[in-house]
Amino acid sequence: MVGFVVANFSCFFEFGRIRIPKKFSKRYGPVIPKDIVLMVDNGDRWLCEYDHMSGRIAGLENFMEFYGVGVYWFLVMTYFGKDEFGVNIYSPKCCEIFYPKILNSGANIKEKDMGVFKVPLNYSISEENDGALFFCNVSWSDFRFFRLVIRSVHLNWEYAKVHVPEEFHSIFRNWSNDERITLWLLNRCWEIEIVCCNYDCAFGIGWSEFLNEACIRLGDTCIFECTGKRLEFNFCFERQEDNDFIVVNPDLCGVKFFQILFFRSLDHGKIVLPMSLGDNFFNSLSTVVEFVMLNNETWSICYRRNPPSFIFIKEFASFYNLKENFIVVFEYLGHSRFFVRIFEQSSLEISYSKLCKASKRDDIFLKSEYEFGFVKGDSIDVIRFRNIKGIVKDYVRMVDKAYKGPNLLSLWKRKHIFGRFVIVLGSSPIDHKLNNVYIGNFERSFSKDWINGPVSRLIAHKRQWRVIVKLNRNMCKLGRGWDNFIGDNDFGCWRRMYFQFA
User: Fold this and answer.
1) Which of 185, 99, 105 is nearest to 141 (CA)?
2) Burial class (CB in 10 A: 0-12, 13-18, 19+), 152
């Protein structure tokens, strides 16, 4: 799975110059067939053609026109293999647009078959009585839905009047007073009493409760979709902010947004979140959030609510070698966890291996700003790992009371370094030839790979030292050769050494 970004600028859209990145075409172009399928999150599927010579996708402009993709909008396209591409659409406010399932019923649509269906989403709305908005689909017999703009009368009155246009009369023909309709919002449903009068109807008992529990407010546009069953609708709603319509996904999980990294973001070490995400989303996050990368690495990042932003990201940016004009896409997984995707300047997604490319740079670890303190107990030592910015993490090491050796401790920076551990030299590291080094229970796989024999090699500054290493479960002992290694490198007390399994 690899993705790329398509940016819609006025000159690109006007002259039909929207192309996929050259790096992507060079790598995957030969295996992509001519006919491809664009899949939107709501289940819509579009058939387009891929031109191997120019790298253009024929029909992409019509796709963007239908979904109302304007200037400065972004498409994140993910290649799933064979002929399938997933498409996520982002507004200029950097938030993903959640399109309801009602757009084309998941049917395959070719360019020649679109007809009136090519009208952009933002311009296919006509206003009727009582401020109701109705949206007409190309196939009345198979699929129908209508819209209702919430006015003050809908919030204050016990009954909300809904005007039904002529095209929808057949839907209400068999309805009678005092019946109840079922509205489905995600996995939850509400039953609302209806009152019919000619070709209009009103929502009665249950309507006010539905508005409160679904957090519907003044100005929202409610979308009612016929499910095919009598007296049953799927429901979603749009929220208008700054004269732009943003479709709201009531489930916070799955919310996506992106940010373009500028020099100021990297220099100040923070990423500001789009304000259009809303207060409900901002308030749901804890002060420390977790980033989950494609290579399954996890990072703990500080979150500040005012203004909403991820702060102290310099080490994260340095580790993944983030540069100006990189695009970072965030998907909310729930419980303050985000799935993070990174796209380079050429718009191609960066696929980091399990041992991150940036991890080869030794200067990353030399620039880490940390301090260490020790809280001693009767049977355990707590290693306090404190970031200069104030983040505190405690690592606990069981201590053998009978052991009288030097205070030689190791730390495993699991959140930041893969395949490495840290040794902090004690007060007298050279006085003892045998020094206990604790690796950690969560890295047994690495301790198994470490040579448990007469000699292990330590490589530093293009030189090699041979040190005897003995393993006992997750505790290893550095014996003969360790003092030479310390002396030759002039390591003093309380120095930190970073070890990587070669």
Assistant:
1) 105
2) exposed
**If pLDDT is split at 50, 70 and 90, which confidence band does 275 have?**
confident
pLDDT exceeds 80 at position 118: no
115 token code pair: 């007809």
374: pLDDT confidence band, cut at 50, 70 and 90? Answer: very low
Contact in structure between 291 and 298 (CB atoms under 8 Å): yes
Secondary structure percentages of the chain, helix, strand, coil, to 5: 20, 40, 40
The dihedrals phi and psi of 232, each to the nearest 5 degrees, come to -140, 130
DSSP strand pairing (288-292 vs 337-343)? parallel
Decide the pairing of beta strands 380-387 and 308-311. unpaired
In the prediction, which pLDDT does 39 show? 87
Cα separation, 417 vs 415, in Å, equals 6
Q: Which residue has the higher pLDDT, 185 or 353?
A: 185
CB atoms inside a 10 Å sphere around CB 156: 9
Instruction: Identify the band that residue 465 occupies on the pLDDT scale cut at 50, 70 and 90.
Output: confident
**What pLDDT shows up at residue 114?**
30
Say if strands 256-260 and 327-334 run parallel, antiparallel, or are unpaired: antiparallel
Helix (H) or strand (E) holding 213: helix 207-213
Strand ranges (E), 61-217 = 73-81, 84-90, 108-109, 126-127, 133-134, 145-149, 160-163, 180-185, 188-197, 200-203
Contact criterion met (CB below 8 Å) for 218 and 155 = yes
Residue 72: which of 11, 8, 20 has the closest Cα?
8
Q: How far apart are CA 497 and CA 502, in angstroms?
A: 15
Tokens of 208: 């006010």
Backbone angles phi, psi at 363, to 5 degrees: -70, -15
Please give the Cα distance from 348 to 412 (Å, whole number): 33
- As a whole number of angstroms, the distance between CA 117 and CA 354 comes to 45
Average pLDDT of span 287-299:
84
pTM of structure: 0.44
Distance, CA of 181 to CA of 206 (rounded, Å): 10
Q: Is the predicted pLDDT of residue 186 greater than 50, yes or no?
A: yes
Please, how many CA atoms are within 13 Å of residue 58, restricted to the half-sphere of its CB? 12
Question: Coil, strand, or helix at residue 347?
Answer: coil
